[in-house]
Write a structure and sequence with these properties.
0% of the residues lie in helices and 47% in strands. It has a single domain, classed as Bromo adjacent homology (BAH) domain (SH3 type barrels), CATH 2.30.30.490. The chain is mainly β and 75 residues long. Strands 1, 4, 5 and 6 form a 4-stranded antiparallel β-sheet that branches. Strands 2-3 form a two-stranded antiparallel sheet. A hairpin with a 2-residue loop joins strand 5 and strand 6.
């Protein structure tokens, strides 16, 4: 059976300079906290913003890691 078609094709979607979430504007290059209920919040830098429409915005990020998140861990 072939894999299902992707719901959203990120690479072919229009590129945007910014987006607004909860009255806060985010731009390419901004660093953000990504909330997690299971662990500490994550930190990321927004590298690219694309959208299907005004309610379906997708971002590509670079993740920042804490020393304790790495293989060697903090000493």
């Amino acid at each position: 059976m072939p894999p299902p078609e992707p719901i959203f094709d990120f690479e072919s979607a229009p590129i945007y300079k910014s987006f607004v979430l909860d009255n806060e504007r985010y731009r390419k290059g901004d660093c953000v906290f990504v909330c997690s209920e299971q662990s500490d919040d994550w930190i990321a830098e927004i590298q690219e913003i694309r959208a299907q429409d005004s309610r379906n915005v997708w971002i590509k990020v670079a993740w920042f890691y804490r020393p304790e998140d790495t293989k060697e861990k903090r000493k």
